[in-house]
Automatic annotation (TrEMBL):
Gene3D superfamilies: MFS general substrate transporter like domains, Multidrug resistance protein D
Protein name as it appears in the record: MFS transporter
Species assigned in the record: Paracoccus limosus
GO molecular function, one term: transmembrane transporter activity
A Pfam family this chain is assigned to: MFS_1
Top-level lineage group: Bacteria
Membrane protein topology class: Multi-pass membrane protein
Keyword Transmembrane: yes
Length: 454
């Protein structure tokens, strides 16, 4: 059935749901993998370092592909890139499900991350392009946020059921029929759109960013076991710093490329990106960090973890609408600062109450702050970007989000004390998240100087 044979309103709603489900696949993967990684580590007989790489490899591929994916989707066609991204995700999921050992699986996870980056960036670009009017776009992002929140709630329980009945390989094989169904839906409902005036992505800048992220990840993971004085850790840090310096010099010397050169000098763009990064590194990361802590420290089964995560995930579902309503009254920048303050309060309480029953009330507070920020961080980035750059905006937004998750996870997971009694071993990680949230709020305040509404 062609897209033109579907009534326009139903076609728009169908496309919005299908594209939102494409985005939700990233949350489904990260939440389910947080449950599966300790099980995989036990099956493949690997230690904490291998467990971290199972999650970090995905985020590394994901974060480094998002900026070029957003630019490529604008240039080559958002529908075309999304369909091909779903096909690549299905293929890499089959590779992960068939992995004979840890090395194969880590590389397959990195390839999955790259494919998921193209899926997410092009799906977000399709939504932004299809709903250009402010009111329609606001309703679209509200439905998008609801679907993402529902995924946060369902994923831990669904992951526990999959692991219980089909083992860890079923976690990856589940992606194949989902990708097939979503690909057929996008092909039927979406019309092609592209911005042929966009310049091609800057390969040097993208490579510099990828090297910096890889070295930073390697440094944080290696330091947790070898210490900060280890030669490998120091070398990774030095190479990453050189790559980051090269990226900055490249951006300063160009006015185009990955598209961010004119933007990184704009204070509100920087503030919006910082808010997204901080939200992801201190709150969204809990979706990956908490299940590992519950498994390693408390010995909880995947199904038990799914239930124990409900205070956090249910708050993530409830509070996006609350955040949107508050934002209309006080402005998006004040809402972002209030969200970070709530996350800092929740993580401080979690650090103090770890090991006790009130710890789960603190998780609800963290989820409330994160839920209130979730849609607002996306909105802040979209409203600071120039018109006609939905692919670039989605690329910048999701790069900031998953770079934050990647670096937050590698840093905070290294703070967990596995020898501590029960969940008290997660207290240092919660304290670290609190400090990061407060520091980020201070930087954002100094950057955007919120005062005017919106």
């Amino acid at each position: 059935m062609s897209a033109g044979s579907v009534p326009a309103r139903a076609q728009d709603q169908g496309l919005l749901i299908a594209a939102s489900l494409c985005c939700a696949m990233s949350l489904l993967d990260t939440n389910v993998m947080a449950l599966a990684s300790p099980v995989i580590a036990e099956a493949l007989r690997t230690g904490p370092t291998g467990t971290r790489w199972l999650i970090s490899a995905f985020f590394l591929g994901f974060a480094t592909s998002l900026l070029p994916a957003g630019a490529i989707s604008d240039l080559c066609g958002r529908r075309r890139v999304l369909i091909r991204g779903l096909a690549a995700l299905a293929l890499t999921s089959l590779m992960a499900g068939a992995a004979p050992g840890l090395g194969w699986l880590v590389w397959a996870r990195a390839a999955q991350g790259v494919a998921m980056g193209f899926v997410l960036a092009s799906a977000l670009a399709l939504i932004g392009q299809r709903f250009p009017e402010p009111q329609a776009r606001a309703r679209a992002w509200m439905l998008w946020g609801t679907i993402m929140g529902l995924t946060m709630v369902v994923a831990p329980v669904l992951g526990g059921l999959i692991l219980h009945f089909s083992g860890w390989r079923g976690v990856f094989l589940l992606n194949v029929p989902i990708c097939l169904g979503l690909g057929l839906a996008i092909r039927s409902l979406a019309t092609e759109s592209a911005d042929l005036d966009r310049e091609a992505p800057d390969a040097v800048a993208i490579l510099s960013f990828a090297v910096a992220m890889f070295c930073g990840t390697w440094m944080l993971i290696a330091a947790s076991s070898a210490g900060w004085a280890d030669v490998q850790v120091l070398a990774a840090g030095a190479l990453g710093a050189l790559a980051l310096a090269g990226l900055v010099l490249r951006l300063r010397g160009r006015r185009a490329g990955v598209g961010v050169t004119p933007l990184y000098r704009q204070r509100r763009v920087v503030g919006a990106v910082m808010a997204m990064f901080a939200y992801a590194a201190t709150a969204q990361v809990m979706a990956s960090l908490l299940p590992i802590g519950m498994r390693v420290l408390a010995g909880a089964t995947p199904l038990q973890i799914g239930v124990l995560m409900l205070p956090f995930t249910s708050a993530m579902l409830i509070f996006p609408r609350v955040g949107a309503q508050i934002s209309q009254r006080i402005g998006v920048w004040w809402m972002l600062l209030a969200g970070l303050a709530t996350i800092a309060l929740g993580t401080a309480a979690a650090a103090a109450l770890a090991g006790g029953p009130l710890f789960f009330a603190a998780l609800f507070v963290i989820g409330a702050g994160a839920g209130a920020m979730n849609g607002e961080t996306q909105k802040a980035i979209m409203m600071t970007m120039p018109p006609g750059s939905t692919g670039l905006a989605s690329g910048i937004s999701t790069t900031a989000r998953f770079s934050g998750v990647l670096l937050g996870f590698t840093a905070l997971s290294g703070m967990i004390e596995p020898s501590a009694a029960g969940l008290s071993g997660i207290a240092p990680a919660m304290a670290g998240a609190m400090a990061a949230a407060l520091a980020a709020a201070g930087v954002i305040w100094m950057t955007v100087r919120p005062g005017a509404r919106g």
